[in-house]
Amino acid sequence: MTMLTCTILTDPAPLAASEAGRQSKSTGTVYLLVTNTGQQAAFWSTIKVEVPVGNGAGDLTSDFDKIEPKGEYSTWAGTRSSVNVQPGSQGSNAFQATAPGGRAPFAPGDYMVLTLENVTVAPTAGLAVLKVTEAASRTKTGRLSNSFAAVALVKTAPKEIPAPHSFLADNAVVDAGTKVTLSWEGSDDFTYEILFPGGRKTVPKVKHTGSHGQYSLVLDAADAPKRDTTYTLIAGFGTQRLPSMVLCTPTPCARRMPPTGRAAGGSTSTTKG
Questions:
Q1: Dist. CA 268–CA 260, nearest whole Å
Q2: Which residue stretches of the chain have pLDDT < 70?
Q3: CA-CA distances (angstroms) from residue 36 to 74, 108, 134, 138?
Q4: What is the pLDDT of residue 10?
């Protein structure tokens, strides 16, 4: 039994697993709350947190080196101070918090929060268990002893990719053969194509901050409308193509909401020329 009590929290809660093949990865923050629920002080030296690393259901992350650790100690009276938290030895996949001066009192009601930020969540849903090793004693000069605890968190299935939206032409009515710019907002995880009578255009990949942003494609005179033309945006991920439709005319704009589906979206813009 440990002298201190450990509780684990995450943001978001629960964490969503990443999905293989996506440019955007699921990330989150893990908080380990350590508190003294007893009636007498403990004198702690180190608290080590081992992170399960890999791509399996029981792993938290496959990229340990990207995790950013920090710690803060708070007394029952509300005084706060930072705690030194550093990665363990190479290959240990652990972080260790060290008491100031090598040993410090942990009074009843005091608590410490060890924060692991920028955690890239492993791609398989499941239960990940972190192992905690506490080196502490009941007196300031007493012999340190190691105690152990296991804390678990849940990783849910990957979140759906939001369907693209706001697919529009820069001008709804243009002269025949005039260039047209089509634009929309969407995820970088999709591949995009524009379909129109007599042709199609593949949209170049763009990497945005946050893996989501504005896309546009300019159709030159050869592909510009010469009569009423419907341009269809097809968004796909992997082998799945589940289009959602957005139909825009000069005025008004009518919209049909996309069907449920993670992998893809599509839109249609009608331009008159």
A1: 18
A2: 1, 23, 174-177, 209-210, 239-273
A3: 11, 5, 12, 12
A4: 97
45 burial via Cβ count (<10 Å: 0-12, 13-18, 19+)? middle
Q: Which residue has tokens 């199609």?
A: 200
What does the pLDDT read at residue 264? 41
Alpha-carbon span 69 to 117, nearest angstrom: 6
Query: How does 81-90 read in b/e, with b if 16+ C-beta sit within 10 Å?
Result: eebebeeeee
Residue 127 pLDDT: 98
Q: Which of 258, 139, 137, 96 is nearest to 190 (CA)?
A: 258
Rounded distance, CA 192 to CA 205, Å?
8
The count of other CB atoms within 10 Å of the CB of residue 200 is: 11
75 φ, ψ (degrees, to nearest 5): -85, 165
How many angstroms separate the CA atoms of 245 and 268, rounded? 6
181: tokens are 């710019």
Query: What is the distance between the alpha carbons of residues 20 and 31, in angstroms, rounded to a whole number?
Result: 26
Token pair of 203, please?
A: 């949209």
Predicted local distance difference test score (pLDDT) of residue 188: 85
pTM of the model: 0.72
